[in-house]
């Protein structure tokens, strides 16, 4: 079998099964695992998949600028944001991630519900100034301009001191085995600190991000208490998260 044909078949397996195991492909194609790993490295470099230990997973959609993301799938984001807002309780200490989907939560919060919301997002901080019942706290750090958010050591250290009732995260990829992942290492470190001591960890993710993986781990999927996504997510994608004990909500 030619290398190009073998790679094409590998991508078909990935598309149909949602993951690739090097040992299984070695047996299927009658080649060594070293050959399979070399093919996977080349497909990874070409952007077709994300290599992980023992095989590969679907690569999450490419990161794009904040202003572009703000305009995408606005109806789905509003529904996801509304579902997340319904999880908030009187007096909660909330840590809110940067990103357009977490931002959608703010529009759906009950205006009479007293909360404390901590965020490193400049966009969210501006919105908190217009919410009289919410105590807003801004976490500082180095400005990550494309995300309009703070990152770095100061941001991470500030979150590590908190014991939030609920952490609301966005993510680039959410996979039951590979976990919740992001594109940028510094952003991922901030998100890890946000989730580390939270009683409830909620991830908001559009259906196309489910079953995919980005380079930087944020938290294992089993650490989540809730996953909120849109109604386009198929049951076979959602069930593995339920098997981990995650409360899956479609909106």
TrEMBL record:
InterPro entries the UniProt entry points to: Carb_Metab_HTH_regulators, DeoR-like_C, DeoR_HTH, NagB/RpiA_transferase-like, Tscrpt_reg_HTH_DeoR_CS, WH-like_DNA-bd_sf, WH_DNA-bd_sf
Keywords: DNA-binding, Repressor, Transcription, Transcription regulation
All copies of domain HTH deoR-type, residue ranges: 3-58
Coiled-coil regions listed in the entry: none
Transcription as UniProt keyword: yes
MF term (GO), any: DNA-binding transcription factor activity
Listed Pfam families: DeoRC, HTH_DeoR
Protein name: Glucitol operon repressor
Classification of source organism: Bacteria, Pseudomonadati, Planctomycetota, Planctomycetia, Isosphaerales
């Amino acid at each position: 079998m030619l290398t190009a044909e073998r790679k094409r078949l590998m991508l078909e397996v990935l598309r149909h099964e949602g993951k690739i195991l090097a040992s299984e492909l070695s047996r299927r194609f009658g080649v060594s695992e070293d050959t399979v790993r070399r093919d996977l490295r080349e497909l990874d470099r070409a952007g077709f998949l994300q290599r992980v230990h023992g095989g590969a997973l679907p690569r999450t959609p490419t990161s794009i600028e904040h202003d572009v993301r703000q305009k995408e799938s606005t109806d789905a984001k509003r529904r996801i944001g509304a579902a997340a807002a319904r999880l908030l309780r009187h007096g909660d200490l909330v840590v809110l991630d940067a990103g357009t989907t977490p931002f959608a939560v703010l529009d759906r919060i009950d205006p009479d519900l007293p909360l404390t919301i901590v965020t490193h997002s400049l966009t969210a901080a501006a919105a908190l100034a217009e919410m009289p019942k919410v105590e807003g706290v801004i976490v500082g750090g180095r400005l990550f301009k494309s995300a309009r958010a703070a990152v770095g050591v100061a941001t991470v250290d500030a979150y590590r001191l908190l014991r939030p009732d609920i952490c609301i995260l966005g993510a680039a990829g959410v996979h039951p085995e590979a976990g919740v992942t992001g594109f940028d290492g510094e952003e991922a470190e901030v998100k890890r600190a946000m989730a580390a001591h939270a009683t409830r960890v909620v991830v908001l993710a559009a259906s196309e991000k489910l079953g995919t993986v980005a380079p930087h781990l944020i938290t294992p999927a089993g650490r989540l208490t809730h996953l909120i996504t849109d109604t386009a997510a198929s049951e076979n994608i959602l069930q593995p998260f339920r098997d981990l004990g995650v409360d899956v909500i479609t909106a």
